[in-house]
Amino acid sequence: MHRCVCAALAVLSLVGASPTPGSAPPRSVPWKASRLDKPNEHVIFLQYGETEPALKLKETMPVEELNPTHYPARRAAAVAQHFLNARHGSPYKWFHVEQVQSATLEEIAGVGAKYHVVFSAKEGVCNQSVGLCTADVLFPEAGGDQTAPQVQCSCEGPLAINASAQEEAFYRRLRGSNSPVTGNNIPDSFGFIAPDMKPLWILAGVASSFVMLKESNENTLYNLAQVANVTQLESEDKQLKFQYHVLLHEMVSQEIIHWKLLVTWAPAGGVSVLHPERQPHCHDCVLPPATAPKERSDPE
């Protein structure tokens, strides 16, 4: 009888023992990003896999409801707006957030802050609603090199808005011109944009979304303030090519940030931004009066 009890205790001690040094640890899967193409939808789909104990811990973490009119919710929606423009924008397609309907925040230990936002949006050139959009915006945990937020976004209405007639006419006009188009101070100090400059202004907004998406974090809110200058360059292929100098307004710090962007576009190929280059800080730069932000009344 005594020998049986000892044997049982020995078996139990083996069952409850910790892994020995050198044994294989539980396998965990890091964040991954992959493109998912569907009609009317072009998103980056985020997946996260982890070991069972970590997953249980994540499930118990509280999800915070956010006031949709306050800055944390609006910042996340602005990142989704830049995401939509970077993938669907053109000189005649520029998407804007109309109103944030709801927002939540989930802090994921070791990963970052995940915002879930629902907002109404529209395409501003033809003033066409795209209905409600739903986005998950993950801001990576602070520390180390700045990494772009990871975004998953889809909308009820069509994002592939048909502006082919306007785009083709604009494209043919610039391809057939003997003198490359140039422009300065768009809009001017009175907020005026000449009609023939509006497609170039919108293209600057779409191209700037590439930069604003990459540079955004939980403490920023970017907006295109002005095109300091734009020059059409010669192109060896069917793409139109432009050199832009844009002023981005970071509304939290009130800083005006200068960027030079080499932008290419064609109706068939979409917008691409090559060699974005941040310019040195300008102490004397001021925001154009026409684009000065309204006084903030909601909390950070």
From TrEMBL:
PROSITE patterns: CYSTATIN_LXN. Residues 62-161, 182-291 form the Cystatin LXN-type domain. This is Latexin. It holds the Pfam family LXN. GO terms for cellular component: extracellular space. It comes from Scleropages formosus (Asian bonytongue). It comes from the Eukaryota. Belongs to the protease inhibitor I47 (latexin) family.
